[in-house]
Here is the input.
Amino acid sequence: MRKDTQISELIAYISLKCGGIDLTEESIIFDDLGINGIDAATLMEDLANEFDFSLDSFDYGKYFLSESELSNIFRSIFYVLFKRDKLPSKTFNIKHLKRVVDSGRWFDPE
Here is the structure.
């Protein structure tokens, strides 16, 4: 079945890109991978290129911190303590990524 093959292809590709980490279709992208900033952005762009889907509507700020946010420890502490709503709050798993690949374009999970 193509669905299983594609999910396994996604898992294998992401695992290879992230140093051989063990993943499942329920693995949360970025959280389970332990990446943020430019690494997360690069992974999404690589996935879009490899699996041919559009990232036009992907809002990076919803899903992970930028390099400047990561590098400013005082800002990070301030956000954690006082502005939790400003921290990235959305997540998605590999199963959602499969649906994105099937549709050919990024859409936020429900």
Observations:
- Residues 72 and 78 are 10 Å apart (CA to CA).
- Residues 2-17 form the longest helix (16 residues).
- The chain has one domain: 2-103.
- The radius of gyration is 15 Å.
